[in-house]
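A quick word before the example. In earlier lectures we treated sequence and structure as two separate objects. From today on, think of them as two lines of the same record. Here is Ferredoxin reductase written that way.
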Amino acid sequence: MKEVNKVSGAETTVIAGAGIAGVHAAESLRKEGYQGRIVLLDSDSQMPYDRPPLSKEWITGETDEASILLRDPAFYERLDVDLQLGVEVTNIDPFRKTIDTKDGHSYEWEKLMLATGSQLRTLSIGGDDLQGIFYLRRMADATAINHHMEGVKEAVIIGAGFIGAELAASLNQLGIKVTIVERSSYPMEAIVGRQASAYFLDLHRRNGVDVITEDSVRQFNGETNVEEAVTAAGRRIPCQAVIIGVGVSPNTAVSHPQLQTDRGYAVNEFGETSVPDIYAAGDCTSWPYNGVPIHVEHWDHAVNHAKTVAKNMVHPQSDPYTYTPYFWSNQYSNRFQYFGHAKEWSKTIIRGSTESHAFTVFYLDDQDVVKAAFIANQPKNALPVRRMIQQQNAISPEALADESIALKKIQRMQVKI
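And the structure line, produced from the sequence above:
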């Protein structure tokens, strides 16, 4: 029989997941005046930490564990948050309003937030049990990679998405010879289009990274440690370390037949799931954006979504989530930003030039409305671009391409449809 964890007479909110969304949700509950008990559960045994630095500053040794903690340990005591680490949630009972954990405990709740984040996509490749082959998701992974990289001269990265690209830049900075193996012809083309994708390809090659496209790794060879990666095309790549970065998927392992999922827990604009009093926030969700359900895995979204959903948990249906998706990536000395969400577009307009390494690519629909934009080393464009996407007005493509016309002015221009 499970031990039920409850405080007599106390209203309880349980948050499953102590990542960026879960921690900000707990903080926001208190800011919104919630006086009940908050239980914050996480399967990781580390104090809650920030993940983006793991592929950058952590790998290069520019930061330490203390500096990437989301909050100092005293924060949870100060806000009276019951943080339970190393706890894996296994089951939800929406009728009894309990959540069960692998260690045999059961927590009662009046309201529950699922902030379970995402989980790694993995590959099955011959020889992948050799030492020196890693995935990067948790601090423990990053720590193991750091320890292994001492003495490594050659590394292979599988996947040229943003995490793979950031890792390549970080390892390159450490003086390691890096080879990226990517299945597609152009990395991240589905997200940023051909122009920006070709720019990324050239950027890494100019910095000494060997980027192999239209190929995949089929075999790892070595005695006990990986010594080479063999591709489908027959390439043999010497390496003493491999990092596999082929993306993530929403973590919806905590489920119930009444809990609807669609590329994540399906929530409305208030963060409510299909089950009363169960909410969800962050990477594990699918949420309405311009009337269409979307799923994104962005740090900025996780923070803002968690704050908004927490407010709605305290003040039901008081604050609809109207967020413009945003993410960034730092590679070498470059700062890249992406605003909006566009799975497809009718035309792209480039402002600036890839040759100058300072440009903005706009993704327009067939009525010349800007759906998304990719910004390279032009941080001043961020605010007007965000507003342009939020307003959803038709914009002159010619004006977008003309750098003599300020974006603030273009933002106020409307084209009759």
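Notice the following. Residues 34 and 314 are 6 Å apart (CA to CA). We will return to this example when we discuss secondary structure assignment.
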